[in-house]
């Protein structure tokens, strides 16, 4: 594996990784990734091994890492600037009916005249994941779940319920560990909705994006160019 894989913040190789990331927009994604179209015309990215079947939409600059599966009979909607780690699994309408004599999908395999073999989650239509969400590796999100903007989902979590904006959720089933920021900072971030800014404005706001918002004393709106 190339040394980009061990690059981290503060690591000299981190600069290389950042340089590579910049090229995702200007020169296309690095080897192994493909560019996906989004509604606004700016790209999203997915590793070549990612499988997307059915109605899956990604917002600008979101990406999905290796060996993930996003599929099903209902929409999966992902906002902008969302990072999805490797081995992510999101599948809608995947629950076999279990109140009938057999959970086997006779209709699909043997062509028998029976009702649709999968049940729909009554909580909602598909899966909705907001913007600026970071999902760790090996996460599964159940149908009907809505993940709020800015949330973090820890590695190997199973998300069965809605996730609050800017909450950090971990475990099986995933539970709130803590919030990333204070209530007022979260309210400001949701109000700012930086993920909707034009790209030029995002690129101008290095100071804002590098500020530790757990330490800031004034309104975070003062940090924005
Ligand atoms: C969720 C996460 C960001 C939390 O990091 P953190 O704030 O530093 O959390 P800590 O390591 O201090 O752990 C706090 C508690 O949560 C638990 N915890 C952390 N991550 C967990 C997870 N994924 N599942 C279950 N419990 C977890 C810890 O065991 C600890 O529990 P304790 O207080 O009982 O000891 C991190 O653990 C994580 O999962 N990151 C994803 C990494 C990844 O998958 N990267 C690759 C894709 S980009």
Quick synopsis:
This protein is of the alpha/beta class and 225 residues long. It is 18% helix and 24% strand. It folds into two domains: 6-180, UDP N-Acetylglucosamine Acyltransferase, domain 1 (3 Solenoid), CATH 2.160.10; 182-225, no CATH class.
Q: In terms of per-residue confidence, which ranges show pLDDT below 50 for 5 or more consecutive residues?
A: 1-21
Into how many domains do the coordinates divide?
A: 2
CATH homologous superfamily title of the largest domain: Hexapeptide repeat proteins
H and E order: HEEEEEEEEEEHEEEEEEEEEHHH
| Rg measurement, Å | 19 Å
Beta-strand percentage range: 15-25%
> Any idea of the CATH class of the largest domain?
Mainly Beta
Give descriptors for this structure:
single chain, 225 residues, alpha/beta, UDP N-Acetylglucosamine Acyltransferase, domain 1, 2 domains, 5 helices, 19 strands, binds coenzyme A, Hexapep, Hexapep_transf_CS, acyltransferase
